[in-house]
Amino acid sequence: MLNSIICVLTIGYGIKQFLNSRKQTNNHDAIAMLLLSAVIVGYCIPIGHYTLPTVESLYTKLYKPVSDYMLEQLKVS
Fold first, then answer.
1. d(Cα 72, Cα 60) in Å, to the nearest integer?
2. The Cα angle at residue 42 between residues 36 and 47, in degrees rounded to 5
3. Residue 74's pLDDT is what?
4. Fewest CB atoms less than 10 Å from the CB: which of 12, 26, 37, 75?
5. Where residue 12 falls among pLDDT bands split at 50, 70, 90?
6. Cα-Cα-Cα-Cα dihedral of 41, 44, 50, 52, to 10°?
7. Whole-Å CA distances, 37 to 45, 57, 74
8. Residue 37 class from Cβ within 10 Å (0-12 exposed, 13-18 middle, 19+ buried)?
9. What is residue 1's predicted lDDT score, i.e. its pLDDT?
10. CA angle, 64 then 66 then 68, to 5°
11. Angle at the Cα of 55 (from 11 to 2), degrees rounded to 5?
């Protein structure tokens, strides 16, 4: 529920800021705002099984093999 609210607010705010930046003929800021909104929406509502990485998932991918190796060497189960 909270993800949906954040997603809807981000889409609305992103489009509003994109249109305002385009009126001021500042295309770089408009494109940056659109990309930032897309990243936030990507975190809020993953499509299929694809989700953007979080800090926890990166730590798991980096340190899980090291942790498994250390536990194996120490013979801890």
1. 17
2. 155
3. 92
4. 75
5. very high
6. 80
7. 12, 22, 47
8. buried
9. 67
10. 65
11. 35
- pLDDT tens-digit series, residues 17-53: 888 888 877 788 888 888 999 888 887 776 666 666 7
Residue appearing with tokens 């705010």: 13
| Domain definitions of the chain by residue range | 2-73
H-helix or E-strand spanning residue 21: helix 2-23
Assigned token pair, 7: 């997603």
* CA 37 – CA 60 distance, rounded (Å): 27
Q: Which two tokens stand for residue 25?
A: 């003929």
- Inter-helix orientation angle 27-44/2-23, to 10°: 170
Provide the pLDDT for residue 49.
65
Structure tokens at 72: 């194996």
